[in-house]
Write a structure and sequence with these properties.
By secondary structure, the protein is α+β, with helices and mostly antiparallel strands. The chain is built from three helices and seven strands, in the order E-E-E-E-H-E-E-H-E-H. Strands 1-2-3-6-5 form a five-stranded mixed beta barrel. The longest helix has 18 residues, at about 60-75.
Length: about 140
């Protein structure tokens, strides 16, 4: 009898991948060759960052999300990236990885430095929009 597959990803990398599209400010759709010419198409979330969401509740976050997505697209350069330390993401159908562009620059670090994302270590995300009622003086 075959053992069940391990729930943990075992792909340390590095693997060269080609970006097919920028999904949002912290996620890429890529095509990677991982073994003997076998290609995998997968969504990759950049490890360690949280970018604003395109489907946000407030207009301010949606605008920041569009800017973050555009910044990630610009930072990519020619579109080839290197994936390393690849793990399963908490959402099925995507992975989380360290992602570097062709010159070796870490995309997450570049997004943080440019102010288009904030550090993220897992768990619940902090809101990007603050309810107006919380800003008003309670007196």
């Amino acid at each position: 009898m075959l053992a069940p597959p391990s729930p943990a990803a075992e792909l340390p990398g590095p693997y060269r991948a080609f970006v097919e599209r920028v999904v949002d400010g912290d996620t890429l759709a890529v095509r990677a060759t991982i073994w003997l010419g076998q290609e995998v198409r997968v969504l990759v979330r950049l490890r360690g960052v949280d970018a604003p969401e395109l489907r946000a509740a407030c207009a301010r976050e949606r605008a920041m999300a569009k800017a973050s997505k555009a910044a990630l697209a610009e930072l990519l350069g020619e579109g080839a990236v290197t994936l390393s330390s690849i793990d399963a993401d908490k959402y099925g159908g995507r992975v989380v990885a360290d992602v570097a562009r062709a010159d070796g620059a870490d995309l997450a670090a570049l997004l943080l430095a440019a102010g288009h994302a904030r550090p993220y270590g897992g768990g619940s995300r902090a809101p990007w929009c603050v309810a107006r009622a919380k800003l008003e003086d309670p007196r």
